[in-house]
Amino acid sequence: MSASRPAEGSFDAAAGRRPTLTQVAALAGVSLKTASRALNDEPNVAEATGRRVREAADRLGYRLNGIARELRRGATSALVGLISGDLTNPFYSAVASGIERELRQHGLQLVTANNDEDAELEQSLVDAFLQRRVRALLVVPSGEHHDYLAIEGNRGVPFVFLDRPPDEATADAVLIDNVGGARAAAEHLLAGGHRRIALVADLARMAPQRARIDSFVAAMKAAGNEEWEPYLRTDVHDVRRAEETVRELLELEPRPTAVFTTNNRLTTGALRALRGHTDPPALVGFDDFDLADVIGTTVVAHDSVAMGREAARLAHERISGFRGPARTVTISTTVIPRGSGERPPR
Amino acid sequence: MSASRPAEGSFDAAAGRRPTLTQVAALAGVSLKTASRALNDEPNVAEATGRRVREAADRLGYRLNGIARELRRGATSALVGLISGDLTNPFYSAVASGIERELRQHGLQLVTANNDEDAELEQSLVDAFLQRRVRALLVVPSGEHHDYLAIEGNRGVPFVFLDRPPDEATADAVLIDNVGGARAAAEHLLAGGHRRIALVADLARMAPQRARIDSFVAAMKAAGNEEWEPYLRTDVHDVRRAEETVRELLELEPRPTAVFTTNNRLTTGALRALRGHTDPPALVGFDDFDLADVIGTTVVAHDSVAMGREAARLAHERISGFRGPARTVTISTTVIPRGSGERPPR
DNA sequence: GGGACGGCAGACATCGATGTCATACTGCTG
DNA sequence: CAGCAGTATGACATCGATGTCTGCCGTCCC
């Protein structure tokens, strides 16, 4: 349309203020309600009237005010909130991507927020989202406790927990098979003949980490192995600390012959530490990652996109009226051997 | 609080319906307006009254209806929309993360949507966001043309383009120094003595790719090199095609001695193709990526988080009333030598 | 003692849409 | 031609909050 001049003076709509349906109606010479009917394709609008209204709307650049509509229609938006850690962590972004795709199927829109792994911030984000009247809230909780969340669930806004279970089984959850995954990793290394196996884990107070650690330990016990005990390192929370930790482990005497890292960050750190090492220990990492195939890193893989998808599915079922008891979906894991985990002990 | 029984019968609020301020006011025995004042910490509320209102709100589990508030306060939300490609691409998730952090400083909330690299879907997402009355829209456009977007900019909702410039200079934009980056890569390889340099590029119709290709070509011309010409491959759009393309290049006679890939996806493909190769060509990739240091891949790096941050900053300035002409921020690039780009020709 | 003023509270309009109900008009039927 | 069904339209209330305006009371001061 009118390409020559910027839209500036084209219409006398007050600057920066969007036209309302009332203005459209006035321009078309019909009542507010008729304009509404016309634009919503409701029945009983004369064809000529409809055309006039649409033209007027076009001319004014009218855009429906979704906020007003939502208020009238029941004060509930088409938004679904996700509260998680930083999206630069591929685990979270994969989850978000899975959620987003599934929600779109149902005409819902994802709103994301980063809790910075801080429980207090998380709580205020939950509050902000509830004020916005999101239809559901998906949370990868940061802290240990989140009772405060469950209460809301009973008040009408469905909650879905990802990766970490709710304190009481009062909300839907999608979890990774941490126990199975860690056991598989442990057994994989044991089967390769390793005994002195180092475990590098993140904050032990987080449920998934706890589960991976415990399951690893249980597998060692079951195999009658005690030689791993000097090599347990937990509460390693970032890439740099992981790198340092692995370096330190490799200077012990006797040296561990294998390392199991319990999430993608720690695996990255371990890879840095092992880089250029002439005689690296075996390595298995929890979480698959991009280019693991190129580097040749053996991992305990799981489908994080599917995780997001399942969470969105559960939420959508609740939104659609499902009232049954809380459900838990478990995402399975697989060990993918790529070389690093198959190096023999020495 | 009351831990024993689920919240079910605690209050007689109709199931699933959240209490309104009117109900709070009734329970506290004050008028609607007084309740509003009390909960908003407005002056001129007797202390006892305030306490009664807050208690009532607590008891009912009252939560402000943000939709209604937004309608009343000016029909504009605290949301900022981002439309980009799939968040599993680390470039997009880094950008999103930068945006999110910056917005939070200003009390704004990010809403993301994936355009699936499809122009039509993108347009309808823009529409949906505008209906939701977002305060600003940040877009990594998918298609070639996006005139339709600029129009809106003049109507009050600020647009910021990321990575790809608007057709006409009518909106703010944050771009990468594609020309400088590609030239630096080209010169780096030329300086290493390479002449038969392959270029593997994504869809040439996209502006950033176009710029990288052209700049590479210009650098070759400037160096009086023509030997690269048989090795130009464009419109390689996914990882697998990139892998195949590089494999094919390596079977040519004479073989190229170096490869320049123009984005992270293509670099991934190239790395797959080169994996296990006994005598790999030199490789430089546009976009830094996780573990590039471990693999030893030389890249043209840029700060994508900063890119998001800048975009959010520009948007926020517009939201705050800045009315000046469209601005463009350019994100600089650096070549980071890590080995792969320093392999000599042979 | 009267007026000014500040603190507190409520009535009412309002934001921009949609739902309900009433009304005017048309054309058809018996 | 009365009666009635069906279409097209509009007036008005409504969603849940906030802004404006008004009124009441007590206190302070001259």
Oligomeric assembly: homodimer
Structural class of chain A: alpha/beta
- CATH level-4 homologous superfamily of the largest domain in chain A: Response regulator
Order of helices and strands of chain A: HHHHEHEHEHEEHEHEHEHEHEHEE
- What general outline of chain A do the C-alpha atoms trace? elongated
Q: What percentage of the residues of chain A does DSSP assign to strands (E)?
A: 15-25%
- Specify Rg of chain A, calculated over alpha carbons: 27 Å
- List segments of chain A where confidence is low: pLDDT < 50 over at least 5 consecutive residues: 1-15
Q: Main β-sheet of chain A, in a few words?
A: 6 strands, parallel
Question: How many separate domains make up the residues of chain A?
Answer: 3
Whole-number average pLDDT of chain A? 91
CATH topology-level name of the largest domain in chain A? Rossmann fold
Task: Count the DSSP helices of chain A.
Answer: 13
> If interface size is counted as residues with C-beta under 8 Å from the partner's C-beta, which chains form the largest one?
A-B, 58 and 58 residues
**CATH class group of the largest domain in chain A:** Alpha Beta
Number of strands of chain A: 12
CATH architecture of the largest domain in chain A: 3-Layer(aba) Sandwich
GO molecular function, one term (chains A, B): DNA-binding transcription factor activity
Keywords (chains A, B): DNA-binding, Transcription, Transcription regulation
Domain HTH lacI-type (chains A, B): 19-73
Organism (chains A, B): Winogradskya consettensis
